[in-house]
Amino acid sequence: MDEPVAPFREKAFGRFPFRSRAFIKIQEGCNNFCSYCIVPYARGRERSRALDEVLADCRQAVAAGFPELVLTGVNTCAYEDDGRGLNDLVDLLCREIPGSWRLRLSSTEPSPDNFGLLETMARHPERVCRFLHLALQHGSDRILRAMNRRYTTQEYAAFAAAARRLMPDIHLGSDVIVGFPGETEADFEQSCAFIRTMQFANLHVFSYSRRAGTPAAEMSGQVPEAVKKERHRVLEALGESMAAAFRQSQLGKILPVIFETIDGRGIAHGWSDNYLAVSRPAREVELRRIVPVEYRG
């Protein structure tokens, strides 16, 4: 059995433009070994940053005036320090750090083990952004198995449904790959159909590309580039329509917004907690503060 990996320390605090978001790294490495991905070979085993240092870094960021903290990592859901996981870390940050600020998770995994994280997020609506980026990668269980992903479409859908039930109006985004080796037209149509049922607020579409040293690079059934390009186009169009539907669903709602910048026309631009771009005349708002704003599209 592998020995547990000791937590690491950064011993540094970053400062960022506009003083709107502080990106706090909490984790490195990945043990998932998805068949298309080079990251586990390049970045090494999963290891987590010491919890006390993460807490201190977040305190410092809030004291320095950052209204939003973003927890980042290669696989943030793998965070663990002395038996305390991401769920515990989020709960601790929300309880221990006072002030007007909010917390955003950069990405998460749709694992059955992470339902507790959803419950923790829902317990702290004043702190945790209604946002989850759940990498799907494909909507066919056959292709998910070939990718060595650790869930089925049924499990993914159940996780997404729980997130929406616990946090209404949550922004659910995802990544998807087209043209994975062996992907047939039927697989692609099945993926499109599943993605359509998910109604993602944003969708990042990637065409599969070979990475030397990964199992997928040696798989038979490599998909022609022209086919990948067309499938990419189809899914991008679907993603745009779903994003428009999500924006439409939020019209007239009061959302907590942080305005970050002012353009040359005197218009302030910012983001809601559920990751919608919001603009207002700069004279009407205050920068780098969480303010309630009616969403107008």
UniProtKB/TrEMBL annotation:
The keyword S-adenosyl-L-methionine applies. GO terms for cellular component: cytosol. Its cofactor is [4Fe-4S] cluster. GO terms for molecular function: 4 iron, 4 sulfur cluster binding; metal ion binding; tRNA (N(6)-L-threonylcarbamoyladenosine(37)-C(2))-methylthiotransferase activity; tRNA-2-methylthio-N(6)-dimethylallyladenosine(37) synthase activity. The keyword Oxidoreductase does not apply. Keywords: 4Fe-4S, Iron, Iron-sulfur, Metal-binding, S-adenosyl-L-methionine, Transferase. Transmembrane segments: none annotated. InterPro entries: Elp3/MiaA/NifB-like_rSAM, Methylthiotransferase, Methylthiotransferase_CS, rSAM, rSAM_horseshoe, rSAM_sf. Its EC number is 2.8.4.5. SUPFAM superfamilies: Radical SAM enzymes. Residues 16-247 form the Radical SAM core domain. It is an enzyme of class 2 (transferase). SMART domains: Elp3. Pfam families: Radical_SAM. This is Threonylcarbamoyladenosine tRNA methylthiotransferase MtaB.
